[in-house]
Amino acid sequence: MSLTLNAQIDKIEPPFWYAGMQNPELQILFYGKDISQYQVTVSNGIKITNVKRTENSNYIFVTIDTKKVAASDFVFTFKNNNKETFTQKYSLRQRRENSAQRKSFDSSDMMYLLMPDRFANGNRNNDSENATQEKYNRESPGGRHGGDIEGIIKNLDYIAELGATTIWSTPLCEDNDARHSYHTYGQSDVYKIDPRFGTNADYVRLAAEMHKRDMKLVMDYVTNHWGIEHWMMKDLPTKEWINQFDTYTQTNHKRTVIHDTNAAEIDKKVAIDGWFVPSMPDLNLKNPLTLKYLIQNAIWWIEYADLDGFRVDTYNYSDPKGIAKWTKSITDEYPNFNIVGEVWMQSQAQMAYWQKDSKIAEIQNYNSYLPSVMDFTLYEATSKAFSEDEGTWDKGVVKMYDNFTNDFLYPNINNMLIFVENHDTNRFNQTYGNDIRKYKMAMTLMATVRGIPQLYYGSEIGMAGDKNKGDADIRQDFPGGWEGDQNNAFIKEGRTPGQSDYFNFTSKLFNWRKTKAAVHFGKMTHYIPENNIYVYFRYNKDETVMVLMNNSNETKTVNTHRFKENIKDFKTGKDVISELTFDVTNEIIIEPKSVLILELK
What highest taxon heads this organism's lineage (predicted)? Predict the structure, then answer.
């Protein structure tokens, strides 16, 4: 990406745009010393529909109408009262063919979540590239370890071998925070890939390499906040660009106030407008200039990098009306584009409120337009259930059963992101003491119930991590991602026997899942657990899959007569993992802490 700036201009955002967008209105930010004193005109007969000046004379926001304007270069002319004049070229680029109808991720996919700084260091030359603050220091648990985009590209075949079809990478845009910037949720330039990860062109190349493998790239987008080192924080366009109080005010994190009919207004204000932490200024989505900036930035990345979806961080921390407009603006441009929001709530009704066309939210005349939400209540269930050996009214596998009994609350139950861990939680293998039997039960659940399964990097080789020791412990380096690593788990020959057991199971399971439409979009019937055994079916008109999960510490004999409405006239079932065949007409014996995935014949 290159943009030649006139001496009087320090920044133009978006740096260029695209012809033929459904919404032809384009708001261009020009930043330079006292630039608002200039009058603006534009060439090629293009119409300026609005010029917005704020209290900061270093900004001017110029809105043009791009309707019926072909991909081309044109020129803005700036002239002040002293008849001083300068010009600035701007470009509309040609969109990719069929860009608006791009296909996104859905429940036929498996999503692999990785943190680029901790995944693999593919280019040692960028480890401290242009680092104004934090430089490479792999010895520091919370420091920069050097993982980058090149490291992801070099290991795409490994990720594909797992059965993953989609990658969600935590943010890659520049983060110049003084400490802990490796996670890049405190971004300092949202039009620029952090040089320690690579370049904008590298990110485009990542998407292209993934598309060659029929894989999809999901960008982690942050609408709620930026980093304190963002270039605008040195010279805000307007005080209203971010949410500010008389003294520093942190969010109360109680997002329930948004739909709580009894909530106090001050509690709502602090929840929505309060800062996440002191180093993350809270963006004001009630301000039309800020909102338009974020909408255009998101669309620019979709077009520029050829993205396949978004995961939105802290989705319901933002102004509800503003975030709904942001979301709808994107899906209006790309009707098939999937966006999954982080809505970390403890109630399914509260999570369902945030999914597009929710009947619950409709009561309050609200629609978020958010296609997908993350299933945090299922995560909570799986973080406890597999150590509850005695199945009782509310213990053991009944936790998962109870979670699915509330599926009726969601407008689109297939479009849920399901997971047993992510970059903010305790590692699953840590929680369960690296008991691979429990890992197999959890992964089977992820692979066979409704929704889009998400796997966190390293789980598939048994990586653990204790969040009580700090975030760095749950974000450890992937073994083999750095020169000199004694253990290289990216290749078959480099894995330990234990890592191989985890990897081989995961790969076989999720590669099988890729072919099973009944699991992707089929119906589900589940049966009330008995003796800590959970039985459910996924089926369509062509195929039926029966799953049996024994969460007890004893071998059990399961009488199948109870499941006749799903077994019907099937006689046998072949287990996906062991490839053994079981008679399903009478009894099935299942080992303790184990699962069977039976394709019925």
Answer: Bacteria
